[in-house]
Amino acid sequence: MIRRNSGTEQVRAPKRCLDPERKGAAAARPSSGRRAFAGGTLALAAAWALPGCATIEPELSRSPPPRAPDDLTRLRDGGPDPVVAGETLRGDLLRRFYAQRGFEPVWTTRPAQAAALADVVLAAGDHGLDPELFQAGLLQRRATLAPLQRDMLLSHAVLTYAEALALGAVPAARRRDGEALAPDPVDVARVLDAALDRRDPAAAIEALAPATPTYEALRRALVQLRDGAAASDGLVADALARSARGIAVNLERQRWLPRRIPPDRVWVNVADQQVTFYRDDQAVFTSRVVVGDVIERKQSPEFRTVIESSLLNPPWVVPRDIVEADILPRLERDPGFLERHNITLLPNGEAEQAPGPESGLGAIMFVMPNRFDVYLHDTPDKSAFGRENRRISNGCIRVENPLQLASLLMEKPLGAIHEAIAEGGTTRKPLPRPVPVFVTYQTAFATADGTLQFRPDFYARDAGIWRQLRKNPGPEETPEPAPEAAPAVAAATRPSPGPRSTRRPQPRPAPRLVEPRRR
Prior knowledge:
The chain is an alpha+beta fold and 519 residues long. Helices cover 34% and strands 16% of the residues. An eight-stranded mixed beta barrel has the order 5-6-7-15-13-12-8-16. Strands 9-11-10 form a three-stranded antiparallel sheet. Strands 1-2 form a two-stranded antiparallel sheet. Helix 4 (91-99) crosses helix 8 and helix 14 (402-410) packs across helix 15 (414-422). Residues 1-61, 482-488 and 491-516 have low confidence and may be disordered. The active site is at residues 377, 396. Keywords: Cell shape, Cell wall biogenesis/degradation, Peptidoglycan synthesis, Transferase. Residues 1-32, 56-81, 470-519 are annotated as: Disordered. One of its GO terms (biological process) is peptidoglycan biosynthetic process.
């Protein structure tokens, strides 16, 4: 409001703002036909000082002229994936990162951080990763690129490297169906954005990798094996190099696991043909197991879930594929097979074996919902556990001492488990709390005392993973732990204890009472 007082004009803010469409005209209208130059200046100053009601001249309210189109503006506008020196970069990853920075260059004002992060990416081999997966060659000659392309290249290299550490370089979508382990999701764009404000951003990226004793032991052994291969020749060098590739594959498998391993868990290593129950991160039960046959449709998959209950005296519901592949051909040779084994063919093409001493699932099965219909269970064929090669099941895990495991999981005396089974009938006994279970396939791993162990890759899975860990794998590069590498592997240093966690996977919905499909 403007009013005259003793020949001069005074300016006072109105009690409420004017209508936005009339604000300019009302603020500019003088109280009389005459106005002193000083009074007009004072009025203009007052308008700038009142942000809620100030009048902005049309020319001052115009948006800045649009930036000339470049890779970042095209990225912002949803354009195609950018290409730098012939390398196509992932637009989705870059878009998420630069959106947090207003689609402006990031590294021109952070040269020290840029150099440190570039060095981390170039050392990806320490994690068993091929640096060329992250444009290492181009990154080394980034000084020859235009500033904006250099900025995007470094961002992309760090983001994809961070993603490989956090989630694995071979995501589940690019693996075979039975390799279903995966860590919890991580938004690496947010991680890198937050790391920019830290004193050591490279450490924040490296912290995305697992910190388990096995991961640390594998990394140390990898360095030793590579050094040994470089200092050797002939068959020894080849053997050490193959073992190093096997370690790289198992480092990748470690990256598929959650970063916080539950302290109470059942852990099956199919490659080791063994199950271990950990309580508070201490092994309290270990048993031999029978695992899936090497035929692909019978192989035991890799996955995690929870054991919810024990099923006493379980029937075996035989899936259609096993009926067609195994039971029907057997019937042609042995018409009395079904009757002798208490098996009934069902109208839907499945079959069911009644519970009893000779049931394929034995006296107990552990209910652990999963899409593979794979379970831990008992078996009447105890002689199989004396074999070196225990790869004879249809995919399920047969446990040598399942009642001892049930006693620990159910927190009941072993005698009580025997009594419950002796009562007969199929009965579900819920566990006091769900227990996480991991079915893994680790052909190289560290024991509790830090000793590195190799196991045969009898499912031939390592080679497929190895090829995806290389930008351009050679045909002769196949991972294969070899006896010649044993001295170098044994020299691996002992790992220090890694961080532990109590986080548990969320329980899955309960399945039907008659659940088993494979054995």
